[in-house]
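Q: How do we represent a protein-ligand complex in a form that can be generated token by token?
A: Start from the inputs.
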Amino acid sequence: MALLQISEPGQSTAPHQHRRAIGIDLGTTHSLVATVRNSIATVLPDEHGRVLLPSVVRYGADGVKAVGAEAAVRQAEDPRNTLASFKRFMGRGLADVQRTHQGELPYDFADAPGMVQIRTVAGVKSPVEVSAEILRVLRSRAEASLGGDLTGAVITVPAYFDDAQRQATKDAAQLAGLEVLRLLNEPTAAAIAYGLDNASEGVYAVYDLGGGTFDISILRLTKGVFEVLATGGDSALGGDDFDRRIACWAIEAGQLPPLGARDLRALQMEAREVKEALSSREAARFHVRLLGGDAVDLTLDTATLESLGATLVAKTLKPCRQALRDAGVDLVDIQGVVLVGGSTRMPMVRKAVAEFFGQTPLTNLDPDQVVALGAARQAHLLAGNRSSDDWLLLDVIPLSLGIETMGGLVEKIVPRNATLPIARAQEFTTFKDGQTAMRIHVLQGERERVDDCRSLAHFELRGIPPMTAGAARIKVTFEVDADGLLAVTAREQSSGTSAQVAVKPSYGLSDDDIARMLRDAFDHARDDLDARALAEVQVDADRLVDAVRAALAADGEALLSDAEREAIEACIVALVAARAGSDRSAIRQATDALSTATDDFAARRMDASIRSALAGRSIESI
Ligand code: ADP
Ligand code: MG
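Then emit the structure tokens for the protein with magnesium ion bound:
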């Protein structure tokens, strides 16, 4: 029975009209779409009742295109034109992709500037276009099932996605004719799906093991507001790795000869099916017919699978520990653990997570669907189906931001995992007398030295009024807005002269880069501290030598006897010699010696300058 819509007098829009908004989980392996109907979030199946759309697009000659399962089955036979896992290429340049996925990819990348491009029989395709194909299919699925135009969509992205990756996702949506209400972080969406936004306040962990990636996020809920306290993970760890290990096991157990690419693919696809079957069974048959006509026919049981996968599961726990540390929370503070991603269906994963967190994780929602369901709930709200009851979403800075200081050191201004938006300021000063310009070098990373961090931008502050070294006060402000866009401003306080630059902090930085930079910082913490301490005494030494040399040139003749001058010069020579080495205490001692040797000289210069300032002026005029 169709419901009649009744419009109240005076109201321009029908009050009972439901605004159709959808949530989309645009996944590396699978994508899906959900909506809220009768206050309940539900996923929308295609006309065959399938909910998961494999994120695979196959381009044929003469414009034929297949998306989803139809494309996925052709992967083994036509790998070059069958694009999968392209989410990893979103917003990434060719160099990034080659560095992180060297040799594993069957695609023919075109040598183009900007985002990677893939050559197919149907022409060169960008990851944005390929993603748009997936979104287009989900959009028409939603329109068919909701019966009409859509108000908009919430699309989820990994919490780690940087600005370029987020922008690429928005571009794909636009290409697919979807209005993006908001991009939502995947872990936040999962928490929303579980209604944790209405739960008691506290800290929650979201453990997401998908096809090719692992993500752990620590969220804090306060007064219905989610804050991402920390994120971590491994961008090259997921269900595919289990498949690869099972395929290797099959090669060994079946004593197979060296195989071609197509046979290997076929083994991996079978491995995946067997692995999935073993999530609800004790043993499964592994059967593949090879191109040469031979067949592999084996049986895999759960005990063998567990031994094949044990190190992979263990590998997910290290980032969990790190994320807890970054968030500054203890295991006992974790109020709930949400499981996301198809691979968390594996009993061995659930067991390991339960043991690690010391509690049973939440699993009553389907781990494949939970992100899309949360996105649908958020879309429902944003489309105006409920009043002003919006969530405020906060994000974090993946790596610390700072500027270069003397001695090639980095002074951190915004710490890693600080919540966005954020503004932090710090004062700096000039190094030389009469310095009128200052070069500001903006860096990202955890290490102490400039060479070990990533350079984001350079700019210059000019027009500083000439003053003695150390007198100018230059305030450097870092502001990062909610979209992760960084603006750095430098302002000389007395004259108001200012300069600024805008940067996208993590542009082009992959999860791997971030992980590597963090690991390096951790491994080198001790060296870095030593390096910093050494650089600091060197900077002090240089500053003093410069100042004394300038003073000698100006007033040495007038104010010092030859003997005094020689004594000071000897101290300079000693300090310069110590400075050339790396013995911190020797440099410190030589610095102190020069400083003591010039005490009198400094006092005389001060007297002289006061006298000259006062010359010709009466007391009353001062
Ligand atoms: P992504 O977020 O990368 O798109 P998904 O959450 O869809 O990934 O997870 C896909 C992975 O989940 C694949 O490796 C798939 O084999 C695995 N998976 C799906 N169902 C099961 C299952 N029942 N048991 C084990 N693994 C599963
Ligand atoms: Mg996912």
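Confidence is low (pLDDT under 50) at residues 1-17, 387-394, 616-622. The chain has 15 helices and 27 strands.
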